[in-house]
Design goal:
- The structure is a homodimer.
- Chain A has about 290 residues and is α/β, with parallel strands linked by helices.
- Helices cover about 35% and strands about 20% of the residues of chain A.
- Chain A has nine helices and ten strands.
- In chain A, helix 3 crosses helix 9 and helix 6 packs across helix 7.
- The first copy, chain A, is globular and about 55 Å long.
- Chains A and B meet through strand 7 and helix 6 of A and strand 7 and helix 6 of B.
């Protein structure tokens, strides 16, 4: 019998759970709405108890999280605005109930790991994964390992140039107004143009502006992390027509400053959609379980 | 006899060379102007030949550099605008002449390593070092190792918000106009205000604007790298009165989003001058030599 792992993609609206022995070998799955920690984690634990034995569990989790292994609250969800979930010891709770090794990381770090293991970044040691949807988040693999640092990255909140004459919308981030997330997340597109993003035609000026903001963020990411590849996922990036515009603008903004053939000659393979599609987060949990 | 190392701080105007067995045990030093590779590297090699035996040499070098150990041009200065130095195989050249192990990295990565080893970031595994002077550059240590990625960071060229009404100066970067370096490097201050930065009094509005740009860059660095500490060095940062303004603005811009006591309660110890002062680059070369 092959080794079986449990994976939890823990989000603010639902928890997706899988049992798998590999990315192509999904044995069971379940989905539970995110209500209270007691109810949701209770359902998750019951699901896994029905599928023992398992080698380990991985949790790709919404945040913010305490990822410092020397901390007393390691593996806790910390100051989340999600009602009822503040200071939830999700890792220890599941570990105690199932008596299994449990690994936890941010959803975006987990997705970055999965893209490195099975997706668009196989064989790379330095890459960045962004999700651009209801919010904007980014995870990074550096020298082959996920980056945590002091807390963990919150890449959606990097600064961007904002030309208020060209785009008078003040930005939608409750903390920073016109940070990356405030200028480019899905809800901002809806509010700026007064209609749902997915109803805007491909030739609507919304998309050129959206691509401009994303490409400016790419300039910063390339000049800071110097990644070998950047993956752009999430609901907004399902508008695949954005990719060529983002690539072209990124090259224009960099203006040949970074003299790498990987960027200058192969931009189509440098800024890419997730190789794992919408499964990046779920398979991130599996990648975490395998590393536990 | 203790182990003796050679260090080269290779800059665009001069090469500083040292012989040392540790940061507090400097045995010899020399300085050569950066003229042609033949002349300057010739002088460097002659200096070290006079001080053999040495265990290894470290080069903290201006860039851009090829830092990919699998590349045929590993250790070369690549597309530098510094006349005569393009495609200079500085690492292999010195290695061949001296028949010693030679390690090379960017001047800012080397300074970040030295600050981690002996300076303001001792005991940390994730920190960022900036130099803000004639240009702006940044190096990062992540999970205890310097970050290279595809090429190496060029952090001075990250994007920043630029309010053209408050600051009509278009920015001084020949590639990106108003990137971080274009808005905040020393020569920009001179041009924006029409007098040398060091002659501007502490209550001149130049410094509040300068601190604003640097604090915006801090927001991006904290939200991307999540460093445990940030060191700000270089000529501009010798204006120590900038530090409290930068710290206060960084807290204001983050707006309590990153809930870390290290940032919220200890900002004076979070954004700091180099513990090694102006020796960070030179001791970076020594740190590289010790790692060779």
């Amino acid at each position: 019998m092959t080794s079986r792992y449990g994976g939890i993609e823990a989000g603010g609206t639902k928890f997706n759970c899988i049992i798998a022995s590999g990315p192509e070998d999904l044995l069971a799955e379940a989905r539970f709405p995110t209500t209270t920690p007691e109810e949701t984690i209770g359902q998750v634990v019951a699901f896994f108890k029905d599928h023992l034995p398992l080698v380990a569990i991985g949790i790709a989790c919404f945040g913010p999280l305490d990822l410092n292994p020397n901390s007393q609250t390691f593996g806790n969800i910390t100051s989340t605005p999600k009602a009822g979930w503040e200071d939830t010891p999700i890792k220890n709770w599941i570990q105690r109930e199932l008596d299994l090794p449990v690994a936890i990381d941010t959803d975006v770090n987990a997705a970055a790991m999965a893209e490195g293991k099975w997706g668009a970044c196989q064989g790379l040691e330095n890459h960045v994964y962004f999700t651009i949807g209801t919010g904007v988040g980014g995870g990074a693999v550096v020298n082959g390992k996920p980056l945590h640092g002091l807390v963990h990255p919150e890449m959606g909140h990097m600064v961007l140039p904002h030309d208020l004459q060209a785009d008078p919308f003040p930005g939608g981030c409750p903390f920073h107004k016109d940070c990356f997330e405030g200028l480019a997340a899905g809800p901002t597109i809806n509010q700026r143009w007064g209609q749902p993003a997915e109803t805007l035609p491909q030739d609507h000026p919304a998309w050129d502006l959206e691509a401009t903001y994303i490409a400016k963020a790419m300039q910063t990411i390339i000049c800071t992390f110097s990644p070998q590849r950047i993956v752009l996922g999430g609901g907004v990036m399902q508008q695949l027509h954005l990719f060529p515009i983002i690539r072209q603008k990124t090259l224009a903004f960099l203006n040949q400053y970074v003299q790498s053939p990987t960027i200058l000659n192969q931009i189509d393979h440098y800024i890419v959609p997730p190789g794992l599609g919408s499964r990046a987060g779920m398979l991130g949990a599996l990648a975490l379980a395998e590393s536990a």
